[in-house]
């Protein structure tokens, strides 16, 4: 497995010297850098993936009137409203999962790679695994 992309505030890890994780600490928000090493990934495709993920996380963290109303309604109902509805953040995480799945099908699996959803890694990193056999 190769860790290519690390979210801000997390420790950088790498397995192969040609592909390294990058840590950028500007704030505590979920965001990362598009720096990658030489390898199997086209730089433009990787940058597009990371920028889209950053956009989805920025949308999830954005405060709006609807998120304030959602929080007030949750407080008034003793947070029982969350049994019936999804939060704005959960909806955005669902978009992230769908985007990662689409990127795997279109970009990464044909190149023998597998992009792991960052929500399964605690929003700390994106794990890109090198598959034994490329998808046919």
Approximately how much beta-strand content do the residues carry? 5-15%
Distance between the termini: 21 Å
Give the helices and strands as they follow along the chain. Answer: EHHHHEE
Strand count: 3
Give the low-confidence spans: 6-28
Q: Order of strands in the sheet with the most strands?
A: 1-3-2
Shape, per Cα inertia axes: elongated
If helices are DSSP runs of H or I spanning 4 or more residues, what is the number of helices? Answer: 4
> What is the typical, i.e. mean, pLDDT?
75
Overall structural class, as computed from helix and strand content, comes to alpha+beta
Main β sheet profile: 3 strands, antiparallel
Which range best describes the helical content: under 10%, 10-25%, 25-40%, 40-55%, 55-70% or over 70%? 40-55%
Number of domain modules: 1
Radius of gyration: 17 Å
Describe it.
The protein has 136 residues and is of the alpha+beta class. The chain has one domain (2-130). The protein is built from four helices and three strands, in the order βααααββ. The chain has helices at residues 43-61, 65-76, 81-84, 88-108; strands at residues 2-6, 113-115, 125-130. The protein has a three-stranded antiparallel beta sheet. Helix 1 (43-61) packs antiparallel against helix 4 (88-108). The longest helix has 21 residues, at 88-108. The protein is elongated. Residues 6-28 have low confidence and may be disordered.
